[in-house]
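The instructor's notes for this session suggest beginning with a concrete chain rather than abstract definitions. Hand out the sequence below and ask the class to guess, before any prediction is shown, which regions might be ordered.
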Amino acid sequence: MDDRRSLALELDEIQLEIKELEIRYEQYFAGIERREPYNERKNLARRLRQFTNRHIVWTDLKFRYQGMASRFMSYGQYWDRILRLIEEGKYPRHKNKLKSSSLSQPKERRKPVCPLEEARKLHQQLNQAREAFGLAGDGPSADKVATFITTQRGKIYERYGKQPVEFSIDTSGSKPRIKVSLKK
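After discussion, reveal the predicted structure:
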C-alpha cells in the first residue's frame, strides 16, 4: 500500500511541475521571463522517462501517468513550434512588439485633414465611381457625405477610442459605396 501511495504522490508532483512549466513557458512567450525554462523542461522529461521502465501494477495510476506523458509530449511539440516561429520572426506577439517599438520612434507629423476637404474629395471620388458604373442620377450631396463622415467617425471613436479613421470608395459590389476603416 505504501508503494501505491508514494507513486500517487510522485505523479501529483509531476502533474504540478507540468502545470508550472506550462506557466513558465507562457510567461516566456509573453516576454515576462527573459529565458526559456529549458533546464526545468529537461529535468521533467528525465523524470517522466524514469516511469517508462517502471512496472506500474495499478491501472488507474498507469492511466494517469500515460495521460501526463502524452500531455507533456503535446506541450513539448507546441513549445518547439512557438520557439521556431520566434526564431523565424513570425510569432504574432513578437511581431506586435517589433511594430510597437518602431512606433515609439518619432515619426513625421501627419497633416490633419480638414473634414470638409475630406468630404469634398470623397464626394468627388464617389461621383466618378458612379459614372464609371453607369449609374444615372445624382449621388448623395457633399453635405450628406460630410454628415456621414462625422457620424461614422463618432461611432468608431465610441467603439474603438480615438484611433485614426480612413474613408475610401469601395467598388467591389454592384454599386460604389463609402468604406470606413481604421488606419494602421
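Then share the key points. Residues 115-182 form one domain. The chain has two domains: 2-103, 115-182.
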